[in-house]
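Entry 14. Structure prediction run on the chain below.
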Amino acid sequence: MAVAAVGRGASCHAVARALECATSTVVSAVRRYREGGRQELRDRRENNGRAKVDERFRERLVRVLAGTPEDWGWCRPTWTRELLCQELARRGLVRVSVATMGRTLASLGARLKAAKPIVECPWPGWKRRRRLHAVRCLEVYGPSTEPVLHVDEVDIHLNPKVGRDWCMPGHRRVVVTPGNNQKRYLAGALNVRTGKLTWVEGRSKASALFIQLLWRLASAYRRARRIHLVLDNASVHSSKKTRKVLAHLGRRFVLHFLPPYCPQGNRIERVWLDLHANVTRNHRCRTMDRLLARVHAYLAARSAQRSASPSLRRADPRRTA
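Output returned:
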């Protein structure tokens, strides 16, 4: 196509732009045609031999990516394309170029991701699994008249949580921060059977916030003789003030503590992640009252619709300021 277009009088640059290829590619094709005719236009990659990247190569690459370089004896904590080429060559596979390794990684769906820091649970594995299994059995096989609620607290900052967003090349999202940060705290409870959310707001993450939630739950579930709460080991959940209120409520609440550093066992953690994604990340609220109004609106809509993103609707332009 390039040779035919140039033969009709078009310039190499115009042909390259029309065919969406490099100008050098058009120039090379025309030169080869003038020197050797049609024979020189044949694809010469047919003599390259068998493809270097086959299924065996891909399987080994996936296996290597499952670990870190230190797992395989290298003095480096993260992978590079060059190091992956060396590791696969060390395993007896064919050595490929860095560009080929990059295309192979893209074909596998591999991409650079930020590491997720966690704190490992100090309990033995069997003990941790047994506690989580007991909580799961309570949710599935517990009496229907005794609600099971996952409880946790979350911080709301006026300074927005900065996160990624889609932008055009050369542009970057700008988020104006108020400067002087303000904080509010929410204590929430998620009913794992109905999806109902119950939450309270406070100015500090102290025992008073959790006690306020207990009174709200006692009023919301007044017909339940017993309410099971699944929560972490925060001090506010077992303080003297909390134990006093629990005794005053007639021991209607039964606390089931999760293993230490086990947030994945608490389902309401997912609610807080969705709250940040839909409301607080990159927000542009100038006042805490405006931000809290959006937080409460999102939680109410999520509780009613049981959807992670109930706020996917057009905002009222009169209320976005």
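The chain has three domains: 2-42, 62-108, 128-165+178-319.
Filed with the rest of this week's runs.
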